[in-house]
Structures are given as structure tokens and as C-alpha cells.
Input
Amino acid sequence: MEFAKQAAIPKNRKPGTLHSFFALKFHDGDEDRVKVESIEKALNKAGITITVMARDVEKWGKAEIPKGKTLMTDYAFPAMKKCDCNIIEFSEKGVGLGINAGYCCAIGKPIFVIAKTGSDISTTISNLATKVIFYDTPEDLISPFRQIVKELNGYYYGVNYELQKHIEQNVFPEYQKNELAHNIEHIKYVIGRSFKFAQTIPDINYDIVYTVAAYHDIGHHIDPKKHEIESAKIMQNDNSLKEFFSKDELIIIKEAIEDHRASSDHEPRSIYGKIVSTADRNNTVESCLFRSYSYGKKLHPEYSDDELFNRAYEHLKLKFGENGYAKFFFKDDEYEKFLSEIRKLLFDKEKFIETQRAYIKKMKLSR
Output
């Protein structure tokens, strides 16, 4: 029998994916192997790959732990440190699962507990878990874990976990005050896109990238036309950020937020401003049609739909037309495709209004 080796955990992962440690109470036989494979298949669809000690270290019983070493301390703990998060299948309780959860909590790793519907989850595990997800079939796990992948995007890029917690708990809820075009879903979209462009810059500070994107529209409900200024003020008044950034870094964050608007009369003063400015642009015609209508309704609640469609057309033509003011500082195939499609639509005003009218009607009916 061969000796066990450390699990091979990939250092580089594609944006929008995570690698998780996976644990459950194991038994002899093939039942657990089948269970792991079925859950893994669902997690893969959500963008998550996993490391499993029984498979990746013990090789399903074909590799033994060398004398003087233990599976938990010498193999599992080092693997947990390298993973983005920890998924624990807790349909059946086990002492090792509690140790697993306690260790991950101690090193700041998010813990997601999954269990068959009706399972008894102990109070200790519930308190340690970032989230508890019940399921009937592995397919039920796809949707919630797709959302988790989006939310943990920053963790993969090495963003300070305490900084993320602060922003998620104290900043994200503020976006409920904004209209739909600048709500929390838009912010998460911009955060994800910011990480995508930041990857191309050597030695970029992902804490700054994340913070700029997280705050960039927070003041929109105060004054839409000067929201970049209001958003920067709110960020400056958040004294908690001093725990994570130096004075110079906070100035960079402030200036990047102030510089992000497409209509700004000057180029962003730092690479961080260029990243968020680029990430803030629409990259689908559908989002463009929705956001221009929603924003127009916020600015002019007295307008009829016809007036809003006309306003949207004129606004988008100025922004995305052949000589539009929208700036883009990174090459992006998605944006190039969008730009070609929206310009084609803007070429015919009647067709644009007809398309937007049909799309907004569909959106209203779906609510």
C-alpha cells in the first residue's frame, strides 16, 4: 500500500469559481463514494471544485497515513488553509466534523453546512456555520452555491475577510435605499467585473479594488447627479476602514469613487478608478434597457413611459453612440459585443423605443 500524500490544491482558479474543502462522516464501502460524487457534480455546476480527504489523500483506502502522522492535523488542516471555504455534509453527525468546523472558524474560513431536509443540526454547528442549506437531492444545491460563489468572489482574490464582513454587514444593506438600477445586485456585478480587470494588473491591491466597487454608488439615493461625491463622503466617514487602510490608501479609494462616472470630465487618477469605471459599464443590451428606464424614472417620476423611452434613447446615444462619452480602459470581449449591439439598436430610434417598451412590459409582468 502506498503512503498518503498532501492533497493537490490548485493555486490559480478561474474568476467566478471556488475551491472548497469537503467533509462528511465516512463509512466503509462505496456508499459514501457515490454520495461524494453526486454532490460534487452539483457543486461543479455551481462553480465549485472540492478536496476530499478520503479520495484525495487516502485514495479510497489505497493509501495509508505514515506512522507518527494523523489525517486531521497533518493533511486536513493544511488543505483547509489553502481552500476558499469549507463545505460540511452534516446529515449524519460526527466528532471529526465538529473539529473541522472549529478549525475553519478559527482561521477565518467561511463554513457552509449542507444536510438532507429534516436533519438535526446541532446548535454549535449552526452557530459556526456561515450558512446552513437543506436539500432533498444534490441538484437542490446548485442555485444556493451559485449565489455563494458570487458572494465569496472577493475571498478567492485574497480580500481581507474581516473587511468583507464589515462591508457586507454595514455597507451592502444601505443599497436598499437606491433605485433598482443601482441596487446591491448592480454592486455585486461591479465587484465581480472589477476583480476580472484587476487580475491583469501586477501587484494590485484587491482590498482596495473590492472597497472602491462596494462603495461607488452608495450615495446615489442622496443625489443621483452627484452621487460619486456623496459616495466618497460616506466612505470617508466610515472610521472602521482605518483598521484596514493607511491614509494614502483611503485617499486612493476616495478619488477612485469620485472618478468612476462615465460622464466625468477627466480620466480616473489611479488604476483603481479605471478598474471601477470600466467595471461599472453595462455589458448586455437587456441591462442597459432596464437601467436606463429605472434611472430615468428615479430622476423624473412625473414622466410617462413614452417620455422615459425617449429620454433613455437620447441618454444612451450620447453615452454609447459612435462618439459617446462612455470610457473603457480595459479590453473586454463582452463589452465590445454589447457596444456593437447597442449601437445597432440606437441607429433606429423607433426600433429602440419599441424594443425597450417590449422589454419593460415583460419585466413588469414577471414581477
In short: Residues 2-150 form a domain with the Rossmann fold fold (CATH 3.40.50.450). Residues 349-366 form the longest helix (18 residues). The mean pLDDT is 90.
